[in-house]
Fold each of these.
Amino acid sequence: QVQLVQSGSELRKPGASVKVSCKASGYTFTHYAMNWVRQAPGQGLEWMGWINTNTGNPTYAQGFTGRFVFSLDTSVSTAYLQISGLKAEDTAVYYCARSLIAATPDFFDCWGQGALVTVSS
Amino acid sequence: QSVLTQPPSVSEAPRQRVTISCSGSSSNIGNNAVKWYQQLPGKAPKLLIYYDDLLPSGVSDRFSGSKSGTSVSLAISGLQSEDEAHYYCAAWDDSLNGVVFGGGTKLTVL
């Protein structure tokens, strides 16, 4: 079945970096784009952007440029989110979610289980 | 402050019907397809409605979506305790060039 499995929880100090993975299975990886969504503790969902798995071209939402990098390893059907210069306010659950490759993101029909990133000294 | 506006909470008794509203503007809901996601406590979101009013395979037909202008609604009939969750509307925003979510509505089944 279609599945997105994310890496586990991470604890980092302010200023450090973290890389979250999202491994896809059950479908052709390059037929769907991968989106990233942030959910701060007790808060709503926030779209961070997406990456075209065909071209590798990433698009970042406002507020997620500079310290956030989306990447791929298509040989293992895995998408990555790297965050550098971590701040306390980056503490959140990060979800990957697939959508059809189109001019703009379509509906997110499959989500990863989420990866909790905690930033604390 | 979310671009799409939802009530923070709604509540209703079991077996009753409840609606959750989501209002936006011409740059998002008024010009693009709306999706609804259900997030059960401690779980990842799940697609509930897409293209304003379509149900993905496996989603109960107790859920329905509708759209009028720059507002949408999610209706849940025959409420059950397992419907207790947060519900989020979402759409592409042409002005912001991004996906925008509502702030989420917490549904309590009394």
Amino acid sequence: NAGVTQTPKFRVLKTGQSMTLLCAQDMNHEYMYWYRQDPGMGLRLIHYSVGEGTTAKGEVPDGYNVSRLKKQNFLLGLESAAPSQTSVYFCASSITRTSGTSTDTQYFGPGTRLTVL
Amino acid sequence: AQSVTQPDIHITVSEGASLELRCNYSYGATPYLFWYVQSPGQGLQLLLKYFSGDTLVQGIKGFEAEFKRSQSSFNLRKPSVHWSDAAEYFCAVGAADSNYQLIWGAGTKLIIKP
């Protein structure tokens, strides 16, 4: 099993450009998440999905869109990149929501480092 | 609102010495508590978690954490650190009514002195 993979690993954009980050998981997990990580701020949830075809906003959704057309894939889009979106982006997946069962561990991808100039 | 505080941004420990990383949370009901570790350039990996039962939780790599309700804390400990433990450590809190979200602390970077 590859677990959770993310592409690309690095990307540099100019302000106003668009891009899509791809997350794929091969663990048949229902739940998938996109986070951004900024120095001194921990992880902040951008969007999440509780199943194929469903998405929901997290803590910091502005400027991002997501899609979950297939259970194994979760795409994060930036339509018009801004320097404030310079960050490291992590995708994660889990079997269920955080509900107190032993299946609620989130499994993380290796991250995508995005720089917006 | 739920919150997680990791008071130490950096901690430096000598190899072989004991370690304690602090985590305090704010939440009205019983939280679900997690510690994750992030090695340089890597994603996050679960070290241990507490949902209920025994308040002393054992994790991977020789780590343990103790849930203290009276102090709203979930501190991470290791009796003897190894150079390979150098990483950033994140505490996170979840709850049954948290709408699928974990609240994350800002992280503590652990530096190991030879």
